[in-house]
Design brief:
Radius of gyration: 20 Å
Structural class: alpha/beta
Strand content: 35-45%
Number of strands: 12
Largest sheet: 5 strands, parallel
Strand order of the largest sheet: 3-5-7-11-9
Number of domains: 2
Order of helices and strands: EEHHHEEEEEEEEEEH
Distance between the termini: 68 Å
Helix content: 10-25%
Length: 210
């Protein structure tokens, strides 16, 4: 049986019995695990990209066990595995710059911890084998530029900006494309900009003349 703690100004914390385990608070790790289940559900064809985006947004803001369980309650047990450690890459830096471009291998989850610097991630020509790519941001005092391939979609609702900005500069981007990028985490005193692939001079000319 779970216990709920309330506070009295005069007496301090008071424990109360609460028979409903759905009222228990959930951690970031549990939210990440739920998102991992949803990623597997997409790869197995159990849900589509649009539904994945909706459910992921709900999972990232879930506060209680009941709210989080509702996101994955209809998924079979086979979709219970979260992302493997081999599919998680963490990039860390301070007062420096980082750029990834060309044909680089993209993990299922990319964790970016950066302080006072700039990061450019160009996925336009990257090798992406996962239908869903998660980017977790922990950035302070810096800028992040992300270039997505043609036809890709992105969810930005999971990013919290503190004295910063988040902008998607793409026009006519699909709501449910492939691959789908899920951005989460926080950025302080900085900016996150999402753009499409760079256009060649000839393509820009054709677009202007049409």
């Amino acid at each position: 049986m779970s216990r709920r703690v309330t506070f009295s100004l005069m007496e301090g914390p008071i424990a109360e019995d609460d028979g409903d385990p759905r009222s228990l608070r959930v951690s970031d790790r549990e939210r990440d695990h739920a998102v991992g289940r949803l990623k597997d559900a997409v790869s197995e064809g159990l849900i589509d990209i649009e539904e994945f985006g909706d459910r992921t947004s709900q999972a990232l803001v879930a506060r209680t066990r009941g709210e989080l369980d509702a996101v994955t309650s209809d998924l079979p047990a086979g979709a219970d595995a979260g992302p493997g450690t081999d599919d998680i890459v963490e990039l860390k830096g301070s007062m420096s710059s980082l750029e990834r471009k060309g044909s680089w291998k993209v993990p299922r989850k990319l964790v970016l911890r950066w302080r006072m610097g700039s990061v450019k991630l160009d996925f336009a020509k990257a090798r992406i084998v996962h239908p869903v790519v998660e980017i977790e941001l922990d950035v302070s005092g810096g800028s992040v530029e992300i270039r997505l391939p043609e036809g890709a979609s992105a969810s930005l609702d999971g990013v919290e900006a503190r004295l910063g900005s988040i902008e998607d500069h793409r026009r006519g981007a699909p709501a449910a494309g492939r691959p789908h990028f899920v951005l989460k985490g926080q950025i302080s005193w900085g900016s996150v900009e999402v753009r499409g692939p760079r256009r060649s001079w000839s393509r820009r000319q054709r677009k202007t003349s049409s």
